């Protein structure tokens, strides 16, 4: 039921950011995502069209088009072909029921407020924040092993 496009696109960008001086193949990212390389290439195409990464067909070194601290989670969200609403209204309720008839209209503005608040929060979270958290978690995992 949940849409993972935003998470997957963020994963791709974080992978590129963390491996910024290395050759990165879509197959490597796909392995990390546990998906097909063709899906990773589609995601990278969207990110490239949105101006978030630079790629050269046939080359194995995609790069962020700007520093990670200048790429927001909202930028990534807007790069997706579909901008999935966080909450969907069930339009198939009974028109014969007084609640079913009204609920889609009544909750619509609440859902819009939630969507706006989520997008405002996404605008202040940078890819660098996410990359830093990943690195911090990795360091903690290594320290826990020792």
From TrEMBL:
Which InterPro entries would you find in this protein's record? Tscrpt_reg_Rrf2, WH-like_DNA-bd_sf, WH_DNA-bd_sf
SUPFAM superfamilies xref list: Winged helix' DNA-binding domain
Organism field: Oenococcus kitaharae DSM 17330
Q: Which GO terms describe its cellular component?
A: cytosol
Q: Which GO terms describe its molecular function?
A: DNA-binding transcription factor activity
The name of this protein is: Rrf2 family transcriptional regulator
């Amino acid at each position: 039921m949940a849409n993972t496009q935003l998470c997957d696109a963020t994963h791709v960008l974080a992978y590129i950011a963390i491996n910024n001086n290395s050759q990165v193949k879509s197959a490597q990212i796909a392995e990390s995502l546990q998906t097909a390389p063709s899906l990773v290439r589609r995601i990278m195409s969207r990110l490239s069209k949105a101006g978030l990464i630079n790629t050269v067909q046939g080359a194995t070194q995609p790069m962020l088009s700007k520093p990670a601290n200048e790429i927001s989670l909202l930028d990534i969200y807007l790069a997706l072909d579909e901008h999935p609403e966080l909450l969907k209204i069930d339009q198939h309720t009974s028109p014969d029921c007084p609640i079913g008839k009204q609920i889609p209209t009544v909750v619509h503005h609440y859902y819009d407020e939630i969507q706006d608040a989520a997008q405002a929060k996404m605008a202040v979270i940078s890819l660098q924040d996410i990359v830093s958290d990943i690195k911090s978690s990795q360091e903690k995992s290594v320290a826990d092993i020792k």
